[in-house]
Amino acid sequence: MSIQGQLLEVTVVGCNKLKDTEWISRQDPYVILEYATTKFRTRTCTDGGRNPSFQEKTALSLIEGLREISVSVWNKNTVSHDDFIGSGRVQLSKVLAQGYDDSCWSIQSRSGRYSGEVKLIMHYANAGKAEKPAKSATPSSYAPSAPPYNPAPQYASPYMPPKAVDSFSYPPAAYPPAGYPQVPDPALYQPAIYPPPLLQQQYPPTYPPTQTYLPLPPYPPPPGQPCYPPAYPGVYPPPPY
């Protein structure tokens, strides 16, 4: 829920342990709150010293995105300029969330040293309204809405194991298909029986051969042999007829 334009009530209760800027008399403190362009100043607590009390209330119009208040404390002087005691920042996160905050906020001097505390009480009436559920309207004031879309869950098909193939029935009886041409008788394509080579007919089938051959006569002819080949019965050369 936006805080733009909402009112925040702030009560300045008082200060504690302020730094003393007076040497002889007691100091006269007052508090200034600044939020955006809004500026609030308390009355001066005469002779308030280090622990003045104010009990003053103001209301601030909130601005979206700005969630802190600047606070400063001064000492009032009648002759010279007012003395700066210290300043600090007040965070609004707690009061905007819970609606109430009564914390003490520390202030520091220009040199960064601790200068005391400022007690504030803050109220925010619209805290937590964004978290509260709105009142349900009557059924007649709204048109019926469509039921929420809830698609049915998609599941994958169950796994089916492959069908076992019977070795006795494979291939099937209708194989090959009827559309294919039938193969002729394979016996028509067997090669003819050729006769054995010629060399196998000229030589005996077995080795060594079983047929015996006459030995050749020695060469040269032995002594006493008149001529070659050896003489046959009769005279060589034969006598003339």
From TrEMBL:
Gene3D superfamilies: C2 domain
Top-level taxon of origin: Eukaryota
Compositional bias (Low complexity): 199-214
Domain C2: 1-106
Disordered, as annotated region: 199-218
SUPFAM superfamilies according to UniProt: C2 domain (Calcium/lipid-binding domain, CaLB)
CDD domains: C2
Pfam families: C2 (PF00168)
Protein known as: C2 domain-containing protein
Organism placement in taxonomy: Eukaryota, Viridiplantae, Streptophyta, Embryophyta, Tracheophyta
